[in-house]
Amino acid sequence: MEANHRPKLEDVAAAAGVSKTTVSRVLNHRGYLSEKTIAKVQKAMQELDYRPNIIARQLYKQRTDLVGMIFPTVDNPFFSQLEAEMERQLYRNGYKVLIGNSQNDPAKEENYLQQLLTHQVDGLIVGTQNRGLIGYQHANLPVVAIDQVVGKNIPVVSSDNYQGGLLATQRLLDDGCRHIIHTNGPLGLDTPTQKRREAYEHLMTKNNLPAITYHLDFNISTIDKERVFRRIFEEPPEVDGIFAANDTDASTIINLASEYGKRIPEDLKIVGYDGSNVTRLLLPGLTTIQQPIDEMADLAVQLLQARINGQNVKSVVLPVTIWNGKTA
Amino acid sequence: MEANHRPKLEDVAAAAGVSKTTVSRVLNHRGYLSEKTIAKVQKAMQELDYRPNIIARQLYKQRTDLVGMIFPTVDNPFFSQLEAEMERQLYRNGYKVLIGNSQNDPAKEENYLQQLLTHQVDGLIVGTQNRGLIGYQHANLPVVAIDQVVGKNIPVVSSDNYQGGLLATQRLLDDGCRHIIHTNGPLGLDTPTQKRREAYEHLMTKNNLPAITYHLDFNISTIDKERVFRRIFEEPPEVDGIFAANDTDASTIINLASEYGKRIPEDLKIVGYDGSNVTRLLLPGLTTIQQPIDEMADLAVQLLQARINGQNVKSVVLPVTIWNGKTA
């Protein structure tokens, strides 16, 4: 197969025996053309498998019908469900999606952002955790953020992280846990997940119990993560409850617990976070805080469309629920 | 915030006090320009947050540096790991990715395909399970398929499905299972996963055992899937081994087994398929056939680049391994 030779407008004109202007008129539905001429040109296009260059056409049009998405990764049950649902909704509304996964790398995120802007996306949905990308604010582009405060004029769709922190911690307290550890992301970043920690600290303090949070970097390897989590079992106090940053962390801790002879939930109770479809399917026994992932995705798409249409929109916080598994 | 007004070339020219031609020269690094003029134009571009219209520029260029991907869904541990890894590799090689998730809907797949072609992607990586899209063959476009025979000139990257079927079935036979059921996709489609079934049937027949395959539609709901799987426990023969189509199906069956009072692995042994990172993390006890997902992704990107550069490439089949969990 010959690589990459695309038939051009002149090839169609030659095959149909008409001028390039005539082909162009057929393509753009402009000017007077006989049925016969139209049929001739369309037949030539079909035979040559000619596809009009949408790039050229977009020059005359304000919209590209492309939406950009920048997220940390698609390889995570929370983000993959979120991205899949947004893509589904965007497609339903006539948009195609350009995705960029930043892997929490600010340089890669910036690069993707620039690329998406130069590709003239109609709008952007962002869910990355890095900061300092003031480009989001400078660009005259409709942007919606998910679960991240990106800039002061950018609406955010999130679920109630503080409520989630309260629900998780209260469940462990109600179960009789007194030595509860919380895992979270890096402390330096002002991410909404820190609200879960604040809720945890608030309840622990209210109950005169020490609040201990393990902060983990985003890009830490699985092996290093396990090393950190081992400290939970090896260092005092003897832990009896864990409020994990997400379901995959909860699963890693559950797997480690058996190594240390801890029975779940008898010796150690665990509450995860996210409650994606995949987690609920693979690990239905995990008690976890369930974010309304599909609703967040649908709402983000609605808000972006409103922004594209020039409407002002406000940030929205959706409630979370607890999934009652067997680990707490 | 004002919606969607993008500064134009003439705005930059006006702000810099130069002609449009001069701005265009600065953008395209063409013609003689003084350092002072360049600085003036660049300053104006920065202040206006002007971004050159890449769409217009691509008209003069053969490549868009865009690669399209069409897959059934991103919301599945196998595909999300595969797509994430391909995106990582493509980014490393200077490409951005346009994705379309077909949800196994031929109309949606066709629509995405047309869109990607009109967006002038440099190449396409496809992993969808529907057929009849002869467009893949007609388009003069570099295409690589993953695990799907798409057309006779299109190279396929796959893992050894027949070997996987042998490994899974042999493990269950070695464990002493005699009533082994296999789950798979719809029989009508000539997908490579049918090779797993053929391997299963081959080994069962060789051992004088009946081969029973449950065929499930792709878009079946979770509830309907469970209904089908219940028949495994409710209909004779009394099953003692299951070779599941994928890890999420294996997990669903494991969850059902306890309802029917079946202990795993004592009463029932199960082997899954895929062995993605997420599955191994959330369900490490599952014995499963592990596809080399990252290697498949890396290879698909390599082959596509070779095709884009006009080289001929051949299909590749990678070996699979068995992950030794506790379910078989």
UniProtKB/TrEMBL annotation, chains A, B:
Record-linked Gene3D superfamilies: 3.40.50.2300, lambda repressor-like DNA-binding domains
Entry-linked Pfam families: LacI, Peripla_BP_3
Alphabetized UniProt keyword annotations: DNA-binding, Repressor, Transcription, Transcription regulation
Sequence ranges assigned to domain HTH lacI-type in this UniProt record: 7-61
GO molecular function: DNA-binding transcription factor activity; transcription cis-regulatory region binding
Coiled-coil region list: none
PROSITE patterns: HTH_CROC1, HTH_LACI_1, HTH_LACI_2
KW Ligase (keyword) present: no
Taxonomic superkingdom: Bacteria
All residue ranges annotated as the HTH cro/C1-type domain in the record: 9-51
PANTHER family for this protein: LACI-RELATED TRANSCRIPTIONAL REPRESSOR, RIBOSE OPERON REPRESSOR
The protein, known as: LacI family transcriptional regulator
Lineage: Bacteria, Bacillati, Bacillota, Bacilli, Lactobacillales
